[in-house]
Each structure stands twice: as structure tokens, then as C-alpha cells.
Amino acid sequence: MKKLVVCVLFLGLVACEKEAPVAPVSTTEIVGVLELPMSHRSAPQSPPGAGLIEVSPTEMRYEHQPILTLTQGRPAASELQGETIGKLRDALTTGTRHLSVVLRLHVLTPFVTMKQILATITAARIDTVVFAVRPVSSPTSVGWLDISSYTLMPPGENPVAIPGAAVIPWDEFVRAWGSVTDACRHDQRAECSSPSANPATGGNTNILIRTRGDGIKVEFTQFGAPEVAAAAPARVEMIEGVAGTAAPEEEDLEEPVADAHYTFRVSAVTAQPSPFSGMFAPICGSRSCGITVLADPETNAMNAISAIGASFPNGAQSPYVIFRTTR
Description:
By secondary structure, the chain is α/β, with parallel strands linked by helices. It has five helices and 18 strands.
């Protein structure tokens, strides 16, 4: 511990006074291991030389230095510059510059705070983002979940093409629909869409993970299919040469089905095994899928982090992720 000595020259006399010791910066994490989100996907080591952002319900730190007071995990509106956090951006862009950062988020950190932190990291031109997590297989240790391939979008849920991600034709999802539903049904409390006898055809597949409160929902939706003009009803000719009336519409004709929904309690993403892993394997197991993660601003970010880890567990290709809020 260093001590400062101040000496004052006054009327030829020298007086020296010792100042209070300067306390060293504590390197103890403010978010403990058991306060981290759990994940089926993680690496055993963090990127070398990464900066550290810590977020507890009351404080944000960078490299162990307090930079911001939080209220229920959220910065004051006055600390925001658009979607970025001003003091965090200053910390990231001054002093030692890091090419990667580790986010150590408390499980109660709101989704909107995580999104604001990611926006600030993007503005600081840092490419690699890794989340500190607890591996489901070893819940008292720390692993690192890399979600560097992410994009932030304004509130909404309209399907979008995700640059860099594999394109999943809707017809390919239809062929895997039965396997996806079988995996869902391993969770007896889940609500699972049965394969349709009359599925829509053409276009591509949008994958949306929606989390709200203690619930989580996966939606596979057709988008980008060419519009097909409705055929005019055939006219029944009862007498040869005499135009008949329009044929009656069949009341039991099913409209082509262009979506499949699966609803779970949030505990499903940390179950061992997780139904999410089985659902995504037939579609994304061998390629980098694109997904949109949508949440209410106040929803815990851990739900989204754990859902990504369950959908793309160790051994699966890393996903491309769009983060959006509902409002």
C-alpha cells in the first residue's frame, strides 16, 4: 500500500504531513459464480487479454473500477446516449484498448441493459464478446460463451434475413418438423406444434426465440415465399353448353400452415438434456443458423443467454444472433 507525503515550505520551515493511504483496487468479482447464467455451450478459457465488464443489480464496473450506479440493474436515463452508455464507452475507449471483452452479468440483469452494453461495445469497435456462464455440466465452475456474431435491431419482430447465417428453406424445416416436435415433447409441460398435413411451401425459415417472464417460446415461421394468386372458383356446368354457377367453397379446406410454435417454462433451457438442443439439431446442428432473440426490456437477460446455449450446445456451430426488444 502506497503512502503519500506532503511537505510545505513556510517562512523557512519545512512541515511534512502524511496523507491517508491510497487503497488498492479490489479485484474480487462483484458477481459470484452462482449468480451467473447457466449454459449448455461454453469454452473452458476466456480470450487472453480481454477487458472485463461486471454488472450487479446496483453497480457496473470495468476492469474492476466502478463506473456507474445502477437501479435494479438499469442505468439512469441521463447516462444514456441513444442506446449506448456514455461512461462505459469512455472506459472502453480510453487507456488500454482491448480487442475483446468478457461480460460478467448477474442473473437478474435486465435484457435491455444487456442490449445497451452490447450497443456500447459495438460503438467502441470491439469485435469479440464473451459471456461468463456456469456450464450446466459443471454448475459451480465458470465457462465462457462466445456470442460475437450478433446484430442489434430496433423493437419489433418482423422476419429479417441475417447476414452470414445459413439460409434454411421452409421446405427443409417441414421435412424436419416431426423430429423437432418429438424433441419438444420430451418436456411434458411444453406445448408443441404437431406437423401439419397441409404445410405451406417455398420461401425460407425465420427462427425466433421469444422470452417473457418465466416463459420462453420458439417460433419457426415461413417468410419470403412468392405470393400465389388465388385461383377463381371453378364453375359447375350442369347442362352441356350452359355456363354453371360457381362451385361452393369447401368449408373443411385447411389453409396452408406457415408456422410452428413451441412454448416452455424457462427452466427447459437449463434442463439436462434440454429439449432445445434436440429441436435445433435437425435444422442447425451442422451449420451456423441465424436466430432472433426477442424479449421485454425488463426480462432477465439470463433467459436469453441460457436459451442460446441450449439451442446451440457444445458441438453445434455457433449461431448468428439478432437481439431485439418488444418495445
